[in-house]
Amino acid sequence: MSSAEQRIRQQLGEFIPEDLGVSLASVNAIESLAVDDRTVHARIVLGFPIDGIREQWIAQIREYLEPVLEGRELALTLTAKIIPHRAQSSLPALDQVANVIAIASGKGGVGKSTTAVNLALALQAEGARVGLLDADVFGPSQPLMLGLPDGTRPEVLEGKYFVPVEAYGLQTMSMGYLTTKQTPVVWRGPKASGALVQMMEQTRWHELDYLLVDLPPGTGDIQLTLAQKIPVAGAVVITTPQDIALLDAIKGVEMFRKVDIRVLGIVENMAVHICSQCGHQEHVFGQGGGERMAREYHTDVLAALPLSLRIREQADSGQPVVAACPDSEEAGLYRQAARRLAARLSLTEAGKRSFPKVTQH
């Protein structure tokens, strides 16, 4: 290795992508590097989807390497390779699903389902293949948020397998497809838990990098069933800055820790209200609670989302903000949160299981 190549490799290895939070060298992301008199050819492979940030990072890396390029051109390829990661208790992988991500909250009313659908769309916008399972058996809301008409039903194969309902490019499944808005689900816990397992295992998912599971609020039967029977690679906890919401969110974090499911981060919803008339910012539900909670539990705040009329209106109209307003500030925050949760997952070591086919983007 020439001295020029050594300097360039060392400098490149020290670059820290913002959403990853650690250096390229620490995650062995430099797949190849070749240096000649005129050009530096480099290939970097990251473990999470980066379509929305690729060009910006290439520009940042080019600027970062400028002092050691010595006039050479930089031919840089930046790509992603999403692999399956270890689940709790070494549960066997689901067929065609690389990583199951639980989206949870300690209490209702914190915007968990709205966050789940927008995170799923954000991961897809970043280049991943994504599914969304609405696990709130008693109060399914994803069909409405995805703009699907009442009466939407999944196709059934061989009398026992559901074909996911496609919405905005997502593969989706929900109890809302199996009932009507006027039909309440009146079941005891074990039957509801069985419905979750059935929807998970009897849906013909197809080559998913991530399957997001929108859990009901709390820490009850559905959550326990998920932990015992479904291979979950990580969880995201949704909260607001309000003290009572944070207390319940802490219970959710503790639950995942007890069942050996890694908490990838916290999304603080309704963090600040910005007046649409004058731009004044006001922390209606308190301030800093998510950051304190993240520090205490050694995780990250993936995003602090504003109390936004647009987010609420788009969800209620069946046009989630990431899909309907992709260039908005709110969509940008969801995409940042999606990259960060996937990046944190990529830092975990893949388990020694039989995995579905790994995909590359």
Structure description:
By secondary structure, the protein is α/β, with parallel strands linked by helices. It is built from eleven helices and 16 strands. It folds into two domains: 3-81, Fe-S cluster assembly (FSCA) (GMP Synthetase, Chain A, domain 3); 88-348, 3-Layer(aba) Sandwich (Rossmann fold). The strands form four sheets. It has an eight-stranded mixed β-sheet, sandwiched between helices. The chain has a four-stranded mixed β-sheet with strand order 1-2-3-16, with helices on one face. Strands 6-7 form a two-stranded antiparallel ribbon.
Give a nutshell description of this structure.
This protein has 361 residues and is an alpha/beta fold.
How are the SSEs placed, and which strands pair?
Blueprint: H1 3-13, E1 30-35, E2 39-46, H2 54-69, E3 73-82, E4 97-105, H3 112-125, E5 130-134, H4 142-145, E6 156-157, E7 161-162, E8 165-167, E9 170-174, H5 189-201, E10 208-214, H6 221-229, E11 234-239, H7 243-258, E12 263-268, E13 273-274, E14 281-282, H8 289-296, E15 301-304, H9 309-316, H10 321-324, H11 329-346, E16 359-360
| Assigned CATH architecture of the largest domain | 3-Layer(aba) Sandwich
Integer average pLDDT:
84
- By CATH, the superfamily of the largest domain comes out as P-loop containing nucleotide triphosphate hydrolases
CATH top level label of the largest domain? Alpha Beta
Biggest sheet record: 8 strands, mixed
Lateral strand order in the biggest sheet: 8-9-5-10-4-11-12-15
Give the overall form. globular
Low-confidence stretches: 350-361
- Helices and strands: which structural class? alpha/beta
Total domain count? 2
* Total DSSP helices: 11
Strand content range? 15-25%
Please estimate the helix content: 25-40%
Distance between the termini: 30 Å
Q: What do we call the CATH topology of the largest domain?
A: Rossmann fold
Q: List SSEs in N-to-C order.
A: HEEHEEHEHEEEEHEHEHEEEHEHHHE
